[in-house]
Amino acid sequence: MNRVITSVLIAILFVIPFARITTAEERILPKIKSPKSPVSAEEYKDFDPLRDLYFGDFKLSSHFHSRISSNSSNNLADLDNDKDDSIYYVGYQYDFSLSLKHMSSAEFFLHFKRINISEYDAPLWLDDDLTTLFGNKHEYSQGEILPRVYRAYLDLPVTDFLDTRVQIGALTYGVGNEQALGGKYPNLGATLSAGPKNFRGRLHYDRVDSYNKLDCWGPVISDVEEGAFHGRNTNANFFAADIMAKAGRHSIQPYVGVVYDFTHSRDRDNAFDTKGTIANGRKIDKDLLGTVGVDLNLNFERFNLGVEFARNFGKARSDTTSDPGDVTKEIVPLNDMQSGWMDDITHKGWLLVADAGYNLGIVRPKAKVVWASGPEGRRKDVLNGWSSSNNNRTFSVYSPTNTDIFDSHYQKSGIGPYLATASTYLFNFGIDRPGIFNDPFVIENVRFFNAGIEIFPVDKMYMSIDYWKMHADEAGYGINNSTGAALPEKLPSELGDEIDIFASYNITKHISVNMQGALFFPGEYYRVKTRADLKTRGDLGQSPVLPRDKSGDPSDAFFLALGLEFSF
Fold first, then answer.
1. DSSP 451-482
2. Is residue 287 part of a domain?
3. What pLDDT sits at residue 333?
4. 112 DSSP β-pair partners
5. Distance set, CA 19 to CA 52, 56, 62, 107 (Å)
6. Could you tell me which of 537, 428, 523, 426 has the C-alpha nearest to residue 470?
7. What is the pLDDT of residue 565?
């Protein structure tokens, strides 16, 4: 952190000797007429004396956002009224960025954040410890509230031909709804872009950061260290390309991306691995997980329609150095619960996101479908904790042959129901459901259907109400209470229903208040009496173990947050 601060100070001190600090009037009026202006006249329309400073041929802009909130919830961890897991805490998060732009249009961008490891509120005050998948969370100490570097990159012009530019450094990459490629976390890499505004293409590369090193450029949260929130050594690279074509208010964006991972089998957390139970078992040693898709958006005067479809491709290849000598290309079963050696794994998952809305003035009805393919569920896989199939039918943003890279390539939140997908300000990580990643945040193995309405009752106020119906695309198997064996039939695919409410009001240009609330009603999937009574479950998460109240039924879950936000 000290090195980062020192670097920023050096950069500023380097600029100041060559700078002439000007008045607001001088900054706005004369420079618009100057052909050497570092920014366009359009940018001066948004001039903010709180945010913008000019030093000769340099413009220094800043942006700051903070939120303090009161958060309460119940039953998020276990869907059990009999166990007191109610939570109340006051949380805080903030981020700020600095942009130093030269007359040549070259730019240095630096972005700081202070929120917790999964981008939820930092707890300033708790009535009790927060129990999460990553252990108990406590109030943050003074040092832990200090910011960490989130993004840092140079944006440089390459040539005037096609307005070619390159970004180099710690940066993010995303396409469409930011569910299929890239998305949430920055990685060290580069993005080359070229073309006019209505037809612009990008080429992207980054080195997959399994250790989440970028989030450690600054004070480290003790919970991270205690939880050993670090990956293992990986050798994975990400390549992507996309084109954004616009015609008026309509747009289409085709894209393709691949994660090429040649991490050694010993450094993989592999859901398709034999886990060393077979002496001569082959293990995945190389993997190419690809995704190809297109995002289409049609925006008319009152009606809008969006459709995005993505498909996985590629193959994970077995480690031939440990080939048991069987030249057949099929899994050799030893018994009902084991397989001999793993064949190559083919990626076949897919994702569909479609939404529509109609503007009626102060109200806007809307609908959305989120459909992501799920795994080929097998009874024996429930207890094994790994898949015996040579087909990965789960839509994958990171490969189940190496889940150690999940914190580098991860979907952005906010596309689905608040509680079921953890798109809240709380420390929950979504309602547990059948899947192969065993990660409720990831949009995989789901069918979400949404109907809602947006309301603009008065100026500066916004409200939305959403109803969600949720199913698993591929239902999982349960475990018999008495025998511990997998049930002969799959569990129901109905996951439940959720109602989400959001409201916000802009008090001033810089200050707003908002409310976010949600109710989750468990479906038949969580109500099967013989589903499980074990303290552990397989890594595949085909049969989540959830405590029940005395009635034998799961309990409803709720969440409510009241927030005050400031930005400039």
1. EEEEE--STTEEEEEEEEEEE-SSPPEEE-TT
2. yes
3. 41
4. 96, 149
5. 14, 5, 18, 17
6. 523
7. 93
The pLDDT assigned to 7 comes to 39
The two three-digit tokens of residue 193, written as one number: 């872009």
Token digits of residue 513: 């208040």
Q: What angle do CA 184, 185, 190 make, to 5 degrees?
A: 115
> Per the domain annotation, does 444 fall within a domain?
yes
pTM here is 0.83
Cβ within 8 Å of residue 365, ≥6 positions away: 357, 358, 451, 452, 453
Q: Domain holding 190: CATH number?
A: 2.40.160
- Compute how many other C-beta atoms are within 10 angstroms of the C-beta atom of residue 111: 20
Do 255 and 240 form a contact (C-beta atoms < 8 A)?
yes
Which of 72, 192, 60 is CA-nearest to residue 121? 72
Q: Coil, helix or strand for 145?
A: helix
Q: How far is CA 380 from CA 119, 330, 334, 538, in A?
A: 36, 17, 13, 10
The size of the chain, in residues, is: 568
Residue 1 lies in a domain: no
Q: What's residue 257's pLDDT?
A: 96
In the chain, how many domains are there?
Answer: 1
Distance, in Å, from the CA atom of 399 to the CA atom of 234, rounded to the nearest integer, reads: 13
Distance CA(62)–CA(54), nearest Å, equals: 12
| CA-to-CA dists, residue 129 to 87, 422, 426, 431, 441, angstroms | 8, 19, 13, 20, 22
Q: What is the Cα–Cα distance from 334 to 320, expressed in whole angstroms?
A: 20
Nearest to 441 by CA among 425, 418, 457: 418
**Amino acid 539: pLDDT:** 53
Where the chain has pLDDT below 50, the residues are 1-45, 226-228, 275-280, 322-340, 534-538
Residues 122, 119: Cα–Cα separation, whole Å:
9
User: Can you read off the two tokens belonging to residue 219?
Assistant: 């004070």
pLDDT, tens digit (0-9, with 9 covering 90-100), for 237-294: 999 999 999 999 999 999 999 999 988 877 787 777 654 444 445 578 889 999 999 9
Q: What is the pLDDT of residue 273?
A: 60
Q: What local confidence, expressed as pLDDT, does residue 331 receive?
A: 40
Domain that holds residue 345: 145-567
Determine the pLDDT at residue 138: 67
Contact 449, 420 (CB under 8 A): no
What is the spatial distance between Cα 130 and Cα 139, in angstroms, rounded to a whole number? 9
Return the SS3 of 30: helix
pLDDT at residue 53 in the model: 79
Q: Provide the greatest CA pair distance for the chain.
A: 83
In the chain, % helix, strand, coil (3-state, to 5) comes to 10, 45, 45
Compute the distance between CA of residue 398 and CA of residue 406 in angstroms, rounded to an integer: 6
Within a domain: residue 414? yes
Residue type, 517: G
- Give me the residue label for tokens 């990626």: 347
